[in-house]
Amino acid sequence: MYSASTSTASFKPPPRSIFPPPPQKSPNHHLPHFSTTLTVPEKLNTLVTEFKSLSKPIDRVKRLLYYATILPEFDESGRVESNRVTGCTAQVWLNVAVDAHGLMRFHVDSDSEITKGFCYCLIWLLDGADPLDVVGVKVDDLGDMNVGVLPVRVSSRVNTWHNVLISMQRRTRELVVDRCGDCESFSLLQ
C-alpha cells in the first residue's frame, strides 16, 4: 500500500537487468538508435515480464522514474505544436522519421517524469522497427504494464500509453504513405 513514508524515501533506482543500456546517437541520424536483435514481439514480452516482476505499484512507478532519467535528450527545436501528442495530461512531444533503411525512428520528451518513463519504454519497443511492426502493436498489449498507484491516476496513465502509441502509429502511417504512395500491404493496416 502507498504511504507517506514511501513517497518521501530517497529514490534508489531498481536494478536494470532486462532492458539494454541507454541508446547511443546514430551517426547518420539525429534521432536515438536503440540497437538490439530482438523483434518487436520479443521486446513487448520483455516489457511485460519487466513490469509483471514488479508486484507493487510503487515499484513500477520507481522503474518508470528511472527510465525517465535515461531517455535521450530531446532537441528543443522539436517542441512545436505539430509534434505535440494530444490527449495526454502531461505535455508530450514526438518526432517521427523513416531512416534510409525504411525503419522507424522516434524521439520523444515530456514535462512529466512518469510520462518520460512510459515514453522510454515505447521508444525502446518501437525505435528501429519496421513500419508494419509499429502499426501492429495493439494498445491492449500494454495493459499488463499498469503502473497506477491510486485508482484515480490509472486512467490518465493508461491514456498516456494509448495516446503516445496511437500517435506513433498514426505518424508512421502518414510517413510511409507519403514516402511510397499507395503501398498496398501498408494501406491494409489503416
Automatic annotation (TrEMBL):
One of its GO terms (cellular component) is sulfurtransferase complex. Residues 1-32 are annotated as: Disordered. Signal peptide: none annotated. Gene3D superfamilies: 3.90.1010.10. Residues 12-25 have a biased composition (Pro residues). It comes from the Eukaryota. Residues 49-170 form the Fe-S metabolism associated domain. GO terms for molecular function: enzyme activator activity; sulfur carrier activity. Pfam families: SufE. InterPro entries: Fe-S_metab-assoc_dom (IPR003808). PANTHER family: SUFE-LIKE PROTEIN 2, CHLOROPLASTIC, SULFUR ACCEPTOR PROTEIN CSDE. Belongs to the SufE family. This is Fe-S metabolism associated domain, SufE.
